[in-house]
Amino acid sequence: MNRIAKFYKVSNTQFGREGYENIILPRRATAGSAGYDFIAPYDFVLESGEEIVIDTGIRAKIAEGWVLVILPRSGSGFKYGVRLANTAGVIDSDYFNADNEGHIKIKLVGGNKTYTVKAGDAFAQGLFLPYGITEDDECTEERHGGFGSTDISPKNP
What we know:
Blueprint: E1 5-9, H1 12-15, E2 36-39, E3 44-46, E4 51-62, E5 66-72, H2 74-80, E6 83-84, E7 89-91, E8 104-109, E9 115-117, E10 122-130
Antiparallel strand pairs: 1-4, 2-10, 3-9, 4-8, 5-7, 5-10, 6-8
């Protein structure tokens, strides 16, 4: 099994809220689990149709050629209809050095019933996946910002 990443806490300053002492690094539930469970550092309640951003207090140092994909836990989607606002979060290997310390934040959208999470409960999961690039890729740009900072669309060259 490839060991390609390590989780860390962001600084207390970057976390910027109560619950820093409750931050638990993501971990797998069983030796056969593919996903690393993200643990809530504080209580939250998500009502149907509501959106909430969870400050995880977590950052991930990821080897080049790998990405961390954040997904809802199967049970929360199946039982409560909870989903991620962006469907799946993509954490690039260079995000670790972003200006926001690579702070992983997870935005959830409420489903068909109230979803209550206590500090210490798992509420999302992350999968490490390899990726490739095209043969003619010559990108040399470096990341500085956080969310949405790598937009290269024509309106944002």
